Amino acid sequence: MAENIRLAIAPIGWTNDDLPELGGEIPFEQCVSEMALAGYTGSEVGNKYPKDPAVLNKALQLRGLTICSAWFSSFLTTKPYEEVEAEFIKHRDFLYAVGARVIGAAEQGHSIQGRQDLPVFGAKPTFTNDEWEKLCDGLNRLGKRAMEKSMQLTYHHHMGTGVQTAAEIDRLMENTDPEALGLLYDTGHLVFSGEDHLAVLSKWMPRIRHVHLKDMRQERRDQAIKEKWSFLRAVREGVFTVPGDGSVNFVPVFDALKNAGYRGWWVVEAEQDPAKANPLEYAIKARKYISEKAGV
Fold it and tell me: What EC numbers are recorded for this enzyme (predicted)?
């Protein structure tokens, strides 16, 4: 039901951590103030956010906001587990201190998402059997470290990485512990990849513990494939937008999550160039759409 769902928005529409020149001039205070003004109660963490939990908590409390989650870059396929775990524990403890109970990990070993010289569709990495074993075992272990603080580790499938497609999500979910690892379901990345986002939603609903609501412009996807764009070129060119502004019909997504009794956060996340897509305007547009279509 709608009362089980809390609505957040990611700061990536204001300042892009992977392309710092996008929104580089927008200060942290403007970002969180506009989130609150647009009607959201949660936020994920961006690079401009204060690193001191006390400072961040005060800024958020003034605006009625809570941190719901934050991205964690894992390198389980390319670095020793102990090194990744040490970074994870620091990340976990910071998130716990600012009120988040969900962590969103994405494997960055061999990732091309930040490579502006490689086509996102033509150069996508695939893992060897040995790398899959390291990834699944490592995520199970990190998930148990999250559980020590009553936190939930979720996996964020992502364009340009080794876990992007429906088949790769299947392999990851089938080979990890359901208690230790949940799924972070992201509409935009599935649709951009060419997957059936509703089939993934239905199949893995019991594992979905965090949701990113991201729309996609089909004509930009077509162009990205034809012109061999990198992932970041596609972002810059506007392949993503907020729910209600692109090609995705979110009503079946909203209905399925509500009917399944999903409890937790829905996060509007649409990386765009703020010079082209005013962040406050698009935050309000998404908030209105979700209210009208989902009653949230």
Answer: 4.2.1.44
